[in-house]
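seq:
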Amino acid sequence: MLCIPKNKYWNRIYFCSSSVQWIEDVVWTTNTTFILTGISKWQNKRKTSVIFLGDIVNQTLVQYINENEATFQTKNHLSPALKRLRIKGS
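struct:
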C-alpha cells in the first residue's frame, strides 16, 4: 500500500490473496520508481525469490520470477527491516 498520510492518499500497489507469494521489502530507487522483493512458494513447497519493478507515474509493475532450481531456498528469508517490526500474528 502506498500512502501519503499528510494528503490522506492511499493506493494499492500490489495485492496477492494467497499464501504462496508474499512481499518482504521495498526499496525506492527514485521518487516514482521502486523495487519490491519477496518469496514465491512453488507447488512442491520450494521457495524462490521474486522481484517486482514498479513505476507509479506510468502505473506499471513488472514481475521477475526466478525459475532456476539451483537457487531455490529451503528456509524463509526475512527482510532485516521487517525483523525490527513487532507484527502480531507473525
